[in-house]
């Protein structure tokens, strides 16, 4: 019986034809195409390098200090948030930052199971006053907060906030950790980086010198000092401890799905990793008969050729 290779396209044993053929798919590579691809690769890499260099030089001309990189406990593929730090950070936010900053996109119920029990979270919520209404008389009224309420702004509107802070608006802190270049490192360095202003540096009224803040002049005074807040778990409240904890809390605010996301990702890696290895083995198994096949060609003998 003829195998599929022994068709007229593969004239086997015809007199005058070479009896061995090269089946390699790589012999017909187009030389020009290779040259084009190599040139495009070199130009592409050059352009990228040039753009990167330009970007670096622009950064070097900025007048602010880039924050160092700190080893946050939740950085890393297998790391989750330090939930005790989130709880302490909440205490710092409540005692210090909430005097000026809101957390409009975080609700009290989100603390449940993260840093507080349900009863604790409800008790925290009830400490704030929220405007609700209108009631039957058509009047707005104030009521204690509920679990579904978000962390309120201390100011009724932006103008009031600016008026109280020398014209600067304290930004909402819900997403601040992700909204700034340098993320946690930046906010930590900002809170701990206040310095005396250098000779000749001009500050406006109510401004303070902070080399991490772009421009150096920030309208937020230093707020974290040793013992600036009190911890319920007895941790020594040094300025850097307060800053680290409040930044961990703010980082959780900006990405409350963080721990779950990493868990799902680990599961995905396990499932797809197993699948990939199985598929690879299956492919080897299926292909083994093809890969180990030997095709031999020989010239037909005279008598066979006559047939
Ligand atoms: C007395 C009011 C006040 C308090 C208290 C306060 N801030 Fe601020 N904060 C401000 C103001 C005002 C600005 C805007 C500064 C500016 O734009 O110059 C600001 C800006 C910021 C910024 C943004 C900086 C940027 O890059 O734009 C962060 C982050 C911040 N505050 C974090 C905190 C944290 C964390 C706390 C608590 C530990 C805190 N603040 C306490 C008033 C305050």
Automatic annotation (TrEMBL):
<dbReference type="InterPro" id="IPR002326">
    <property type="entry name" value="Cyt_c1"/>
</dbReference>
<comment type="similarity">
    <text>Belongs to the cytochrome c family.</text>
</comment>
<dbReference type="GO" id="GO:0005743">
    <property type="term" value="C:mitochondrial inner membrane"/>
</dbReference>
<keyword id="KW-0812">Transmembrane</keyword>
<keyword id="KW-0472">Membrane</keyword>
<dbReference type="GO" id="GO:0020037">
    <property type="term" value="F:heme binding"/>
</dbReference>
<dbReference type="GO" id="GO:0046872">
    <property type="term" value="F:metal ion binding"/>
</dbReference>
<keyword id="KW-0249">Electron transport</keyword>
<keyword id="KW-0479">Metal-binding</keyword>
<keyword id="KW-0496">Mitochondrion</keyword>
<dbReference type="InterPro" id="IPR009056">
    <property type="entry name" value="Cyt_c-like_dom"/>
</dbReference>
<feature type="transmembrane region" description="Helical">
    <location>
        <begin position="35"/>
        <end position="54"/>
    </location>
</feature>
<keyword id="KW-0679">Respiratory chain</keyword>
<feature type="binding site" description="covalent">
    <location>
        <position position="101"/>
    </location>
    <ligand>
        <name>heme c</name>
    </ligand>
</feature>
<keyword id="KW-0813">Transport</keyword>
<dbReference type="Pfam" id="PF02167">
    <property type="entry name" value="Cytochrom_C1"/>
</dbReference>
<feature type="domain" description="Cytochrome c">
    <location>
        <begin position="84"/>
        <end position="236"/>
    </location>
</feature>
<feature type="binding site" description="covalent">
    <location>
        <position position="100"/>
    </location>
    <ligand>
        <name>heme c</name>
    </ligand>
</feature>
<dbReference type="InterPro" id="IPR036909">
    <property type="entry name" value="Cyt_c-like_dom_sf"/>
</dbReference>
<dbReference type="GO" id="GO:0009055">
    <property type="term" value="F:electron transfer activity"/>
</dbReference>
<feature type="transmembrane region" description="Helical">
    <location>
        <begin position="264"/>
        <end position="282"/>
    </location>
</feature>
<keyword id="KW-1133">Transmembrane helix</keyword>
<feature type="binding site" description="covalent">
    <location>
        <position position="97"/>
    </location>
    <ligand>
        <name>heme c</name>
    </ligand>
</feature>
<feature type="binding site" description="covalent">
    <location>
        <position position="220"/>
    </location>
    <ligand>
        <name>heme c</name>
    </ligand>
</feature>
<dbReference type="InterPro" id="IPR021157">
    <property type="entry name" value="Cyt_c1_TM_anchor_C"/>
</dbReference>
<keyword id="KW-0349">Heme</keyword>
<dbReference type="GO" id="GO:0006122">
    <property type="term" value="P:mitochondrial electron transport, ubiquinol to cytochrome c"/>
</dbReference>
<comment type="function">
    <text>Electron carrier protein. The oxidized form of the cytochrome c heme group can accept an electron from the heme group of the cytochrome c1 subunit of cytochrome reductase. Cytochrome c then transfers this electron to the cytochrome oxidase complex, the final protein carrier in the mitochondrial electron-transport chain.</text>
</comment>
<keyword id="KW-0408">Iron</keyword>
<keyword id="KW-0999">Mitochondrion inner membrane</keyword>
<protein>
    <recommendedName>
        <fullName>Cytochrome c domain-containing protein</fullName>
    </recommendedName>
</protein>
């Amino acid at each position: 019986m003829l195998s599929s290779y022994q068709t007229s396209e593969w004239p086997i044993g015809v007199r005058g034809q070479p009896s061995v053929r090269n089946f390699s798919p790589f012999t017909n590579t187009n030389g020009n195409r290779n040259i084009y691809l190599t040139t495009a690769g070199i130009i592409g890499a050059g352009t990228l390098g040039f753009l990167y260099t330009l970007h670096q030089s622009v950064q070097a001309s900025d007048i602010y200090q880039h924050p160092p990189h700190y080893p946050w406990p939740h950085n890393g593929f297998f790391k989750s948030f330090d939930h005790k730090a989130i709880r302490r950070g909440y205490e710092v936010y409540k005692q210090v930052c909430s005097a000026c900053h809101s957390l409009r996109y975080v609700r009290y119920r989100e603390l449940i199971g993260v840093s507080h029990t349900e009863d604790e979270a409800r008790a925290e919520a009830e400490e704030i006053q929220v405007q609700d209404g209108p009631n039957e008389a058509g009047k707005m009224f104030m009521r204690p907060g509920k679990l579904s309420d978000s962390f309120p702004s201390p100011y009724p509107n932006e103008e009031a906030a600016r008026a109280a802070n020398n014209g600067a608006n304290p930004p909402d802190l819900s997403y601040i950790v992700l909204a700034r270049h340098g993320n946690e490192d930046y906010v930590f360095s900002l809170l701990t980086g206040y310095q005396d202003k250098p000779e000749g540096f001009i500050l406006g009224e109510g401004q303070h010198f902070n080399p991490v803040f772009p421009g150096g002049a920030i309208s937020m005074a230093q707020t974290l000092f040793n013992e600036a807040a009190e911890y319920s778990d007895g941790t020594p409240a040094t300025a850097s401890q307060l800053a680290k904890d409040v930044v961990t809390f703010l980082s959780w605010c900006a990405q409350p799905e963080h721990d779950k996301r990493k868990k799902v990702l680990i599961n995905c890696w396990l499932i797809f990793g197993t699948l990939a290895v199985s598929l690879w083995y299956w492919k080897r198994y299926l292909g083994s008969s093809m890969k180990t096949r030997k095709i031999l060609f020989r010239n037909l003998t005279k008598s066979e050729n006559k047939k």
